[in-house]
Amino acid sequence: MSEALRIGIAGLGTVGASVVRCMTEKEAELTRQCGRMMTLTAVSARDRTRDRGVDLGNAKWFDDPVELARSSDIDVFVELIGGDSGPAYDAVKAALEAGHHVVTANKALLSKHGVALATIAEEKGVLLNYEAAVAGGIPVIKTMREALAGNDVSRVFGIMNGTANYILTRMEEEGLSFEDCLAEAQRLGYAEADPTFDIEGHDTAHKLSILTSLAFGCQISADDIYMEGISNISQADIRAASELGYRIKLLGVAQRTDSGIEQRVHPTMVPTQSVIAQVHGVTNAVAIETDVLGELLLSGPGAGGNATASAVIGDMADIAKSRPGFQHGPVFGRPAAKLKPYQRARMRAHEGGYFIRMTVHDRAGVFAAIAKRMADNEISLESIVQHADGGLPEDQKNVILVTHETTEEAVRKAVDGVIADGHMVDKPQVIRIERAA
Amino acid sequence: MSEALRIGIAGLGTVGASVVRCMTEKEAELTRQCGRMMTLTAVSARDRTRDRGVDLGNAKWFDDPVELARSSDIDVFVELIGGDSGPAYDAVKAALEAGHHVVTANKALLSKHGVALATIAEEKGVLLNYEAAVAGGIPVIKTMREALAGNDVSRVFGIMNGTANYILTRMEEEGLSFEDCLAEAQRLGYAEADPTFDIEGHDTAHKLSILTSLAFGCQISADDIYMEGISNISQADIRAASELGYRIKLLGVAQRTDSGIEQRVHPTMVPTQSVIAQVHGVTNAVAIETDVLGELLLSGPGAGGNATASAVIGDMADIAKSRPGFQHGPVFGRPAAKLKPYQRARMRAHEGGYFIRMTVHDRAGVFAAIAKRMADNEISLESIVQHADGGLPEDQKNVILVTHETTEEAVRKAVDGVIADGHMVDKPQVIRIERAA
């Protein structure tokens, strides 16, 4: 048996503690699987005195994670600090430069500095593993980076934020408002006190930016993501979706188009009968469409200490199974130096079906005016539902359109036209429809 | 860049031709991902003259796959011959003994000789990769063997035969009989002329036996699998399942129990709202339940030339990324020599819910007699539906029971009791219910 692999962990929160516990409890089994031991030799966290309920053994304590990252006491640096800069960035960079393998769960860091860090890792011939950064315990990085070699990806999309999916699931199940479901999620610890990051799509965008790079061999570009959150989704939308055979999910979607690569995060209508529509609560799911394989879907726990720890341990085990001098595949599937610049597709060129819900004044000619605006923009309609929604005054009604494939440009123009006609009571709701198997 | 990896392929049917095509079309991209070229240097197939529509380049032709397997012209032997013995076995064994890596799609071979072949591979320090052997293009082997390190699996189950799933899907969608759907599947090329292997569960059993070894660290034991096929599933079952909130799927299930490990293949009721219930047609899906991660589900194309080729190429790329002298993780997750003997759980000890459909004579006391037999065996009932099925004579009726968690033993005794009471018109239908998220 080879020498033990020496692990240093920076960050001992929920995930860090789960990793340490799993290393201790599964030591014999992990050793059997990896062909050598993984030993915790060093740790770093903010508060040395806190009891984390785990056995840190003889691990050396570092107050400074960067010092730990550089230390000759470790072979692998596990970064569980979080944040897209500051100590997390400094420590990961230092570890790679010192020739240490790195395992990180930090999507924000990778979405900002991923390519630069990959460049260092590849120069140094060390591994940079980050399965836990996207969709928690679901092995989507391993799948895209390794299993799908030889596949050209055309689209990757998924439910990658458990908080948002929990809220949408509860809104549908219980008929409650967005605000009530958010409050419940906060009570249960599924949402932060400031939930913006989760419900407005930022978290999903970080994860999506990493998948986009893996899917299309391009540089990571999280700033180029079109983003809409779920805070304006109402019960009227949920009910209308259900009637029309759809369910609303917050999806991140990256797709190859003629004009570039679309990256978008928004509430999305998916067919009720599709597999992804059955992904409820805090569960995540990612679907990948390729030319050779077809469509693959992975679903499972997207967050939580244990699910994330599972991915971190898997990454560590992959390093343990490799041996000194071993060259692994590149960090983002292709060598960092060969990743193409990201070419953004214009959002207005997006093609797809649309759900449009308009609350209008109930008077003669409204319907005809709406139909004309659609026709003028060459939008053909799959279904039209006129709706006396319970909550509306008598002189108002809901008109719900589902379009066939059209463009974002056409839909925006048509909706602006209906607004200009003066029939609309308030802002129309426009939700994109996504094909899903 | 390192030297090219020399590939020899034995078997040039649909899958083999897809692999060759993909290697040719994706050569540049694969080279970029792997850091070296993969070159087809040798092939073997039955008929040298056949036009397979692919470019075999300068590959050396071998009439005998065993000779190819031993040849010094290759680094990797790709076995796409099929069959659990004969040339496939001889060639894989010869390749491993010659110190060549092996990629195979052959579930029958592995389910019979997997441990013996793994032993040779591990002694020789070469890789034996077999992603395509289970669930086609779905990366379930990579997930279980690599990503889930540190997880104890409690249950693995899945839809692993596209033919059976296609037939069940069509029966539900179209209201057609098993026989009609089978004939349709045969017409479309989804079922063989002799469909026994697929519809009676043998194919699923082969795949399950491999997953069982990966899940529980035990030796492969395909002969110890309890097996029931789908040929006696009727429209009455499909309709009753639907009414009660279930869908019928042919599942392979391996589960840890107090008395050993259950391996079973049978028609199964899964909740209509579960993710796995939405897996339709020829699509496959595998769910894995573990202590650390929770439940993971993978779904995608389970068969077909391209989907299978995708998995084969992924396996080849993993070998290309590794370097001479590199020690990979063991073939079945744990070293072959340390796999425990398979300890079979008694099927009669199986615990779970049951669906029981009985066609009985419509006369006084029948219901009471059935209820008594259930109570005598301590079976408590979740629901009882009495059913005037369209197809039945007036003096007969369907009684459908769904039990709470009970044992196979109790159900068999209770049903034998009802039969002994003389109320039954024909054989009762008993279908196990499986929990699924």
Give a written overview of the molecule.
Two copies of one chain form a homodimer. With 437 residues, chain A is of the alpha/beta class. Chain A folds into three domains: 5-137 and 305-336, Rossmann fold, CATH 3.40.50.720; 148-301, Dihydrodipicolinate Reductase, domain 2 (2-Layer Sandwich); 348-433, ACT domain (Alpha-Beta Plaits). Chain A is 36% helix and 24% strand. Chain A contains 14 helices and 17 strands. Chain A has helices at residues 14-25, 27-34, 65-70, 86-97, 107-124, 140-147, 162-174, 178-187, 196-199, 202-216, 235-243, 305-321, 366-376, 408-420; strands at 5-10, 38-44, 60-62, 76-79, 101-104, 128-129, 153-159, 226-227, 246-257, 260-271, 283-290, 295-301, 351-361, 381-387, 396-403, 406-407, 429-433. In chain A, strands 7, 8, 9, 10, 11, 12, 13, 14, 15, 16 and 17 form an eleven-stranded mixed β-sheet that branches. In chain A, helix 1 packs across helix 12 (305-321) and helix 5 runs parallel beside helix 10. Chain A is elongated, with a radius of gyration of 24 Å. Chain A starts with a strand and ends with a strand. The relative contact order of chain A is 0.13. The mean pLDDT of chain A is 95. At the A-B interface, helix 1, helix 2, helix 6, strand 12 and helix 12 of A face helix 1, helix 2, helix 6, strand 12 and helix 12 of B. Strand 12 (295-301) of chain A pairs antiparallel with strand 12 (295-301) of chain B, so a sheet runs across the interface.
